[in-house]
Amino acid sequence: MSSLVQSFYQFLTHCEENRLSCGAILARCKNFSKELLDTMRFDLEKERPTVVAQYVFDASKGILGVIVEGQKLSDTHFHCLLVKDYLLQRNLLGGSLLVASFPESAETASEMLIRMIQEIKEPGVLGAIKIYDHRIEERQEEAASILLINNDETVTEFLRIYLQRKGYQVHVACDGMDGVNKYQEVTPDLVITDLNLPIMNGYQIMERIRNEAKQASKIVVLTDKRLEEDVSKSFAMGASDYITKPFSPTELEARVKRLIS
After folding, report:
1. CATH classification at residue 74
2. Which of 60, 150, 167, 217 sits at 20 to 30 Å (Cα–Cα) from 242?
3. Which positions carry 4-aspartylphosphate (predicted)?
């Protein structure tokens, strides 16, 4: 077992035996020390005094581990955002972050952490937060795929997590050109795109998909544009549905399910 698992072993075993919830966060770090770890623990406890969390740094692997007691995935993800900001502000983050929760993400808490440690070793984008879910991985071969094209990081992250939890494979792109490239790579079952995008807007994306794809995917426009001319143009360009912001994620998923099924 790794020192991270050893450090958390007793607590993880307790969670498994009693089916208690707990969140797990792993982050690749640099220039870390015990003193910095203690300071970080103190600072985050002040920011979230009602949250009980344990912090361990594995110097041999350069990985920070955080166990958040009694937290589900959504709450653990929020805590991960705080950890990310804290590390970035102090130039301590050395790569991506991985977040999960037991029992939502895996059958056993200890297995979840071991698999997360294996995954976090892979190179990642600095500051990127990935959701670990072994159950989703097992379903991915049969799951429908969605390409989400949006330059709003908050909306993208929220929808990615939400749709993954519903069992979909989710690919993301931050601008129009990236969206077209990702589309050509994965040929998703459905595309969710904004109209206001850098480099290439939503209309141009729909035109590219319509002209280049052998079998065009279903397209859902998700935008703050409410003018009738935008709605009409989107449907004329090949959109299957049009949703305006602010939106209900439940309604969005229901429409996605209807289009894919």
Report:
1. 3.30.70.270
2. 167
3. 194
